[in-house]
Amino acid sequence: MVAQTLALFISCFFLVSALSGEQQGVEGLGEGQVKFFVFGDSYADTGNNRIALASSWKFPYGITFPGKPAGRFSDGRVSTDFIAGYLRMKTPIPYRWRKQLAGRVKYGLNFAYGGTGVFDTQAPYPNMTTQIDFLQQLIKDSVYTKSDLETSLAFVSASGNDYANYIAMNGSTAGFPTFISNVVSQLTVNLRRIHSLGVKKIAVGSLPPLGCLPTNTATSSFQQCEQTQNALVNLHNQLLLQAVTNLNNQTNSASFFILDIHNAFWTVFNQTQAHQGPKFENPLQPCCVGVSAAFSCGSVDENGEKKYTLCSNPKSMFFWDSLHPTQEGWRAVYSTPVFQNSLKQLWQN
Question: Active site residue: 195, 236, 275, 324, which one?
């Protein structure tokens, strides 16, 4: 019991530290008027995963911000932080910390859990349907009112865990297009449900080029993307665009829109002149990797010896580990014209 209490105290200390350095964005929505809700996976999670299980709570995660592991799957800030910064809003606290940091609930909540998908995956955490259940229960409990929801925004991150799980479960290549259609269909149900709860503006991220993740480029020494996976990603994004268009037509609104993470990644990878943000010598190479396939960033052996290598400067790398961007990588994505243009839709009625 004492150990559990101490762990909780340490966790709260880490979390408060992580929430103390939010960045500033453009002039815009007032903090007291708008709530920001987040659903999804590790590209958006800011600390929901359990400390004992998640790599995001292990060193060297968090070394850039807040300077220690704090539950983000990066060396620092992730997509949620940059979007909140753009809105001049506080980063919403993780759902699991809503009681310990009750004073922050008024700004919204982050329901995203690393490793999850729209369907169940091998990660022992709530899928997106259950994440939305959490918000619905809070509404029933009068934590949020109808007027709170009418002036709120939501960001939905579905970054490929369903597809990783499909592959891990030996799903067939021939069945992949049908499974992609099923994923987008369920994602559409989720978007419609968030809207039905009263949220008036909902951004959903397009799928990044999964074939360019370090876990898929390692075999080419981080030089070449895997084209088959990227072709499947394109199908997902085409279906998602159709779904969002249909949702807006069905609701006679402009409530739903896509944050173009996919083309923002490509802009950074291609390092075009139009991109004035951070540039990287080899954007496909990660900063932190396991010493072998049996280990990953943050791994240690039974003697506590680290089993990973770490680059000297995370700011020089786009990818942090085998799946996730660095803080500087997310900053580069956020800085691209295509992503900035996507964000502007938050202001449109």
Answer: 324
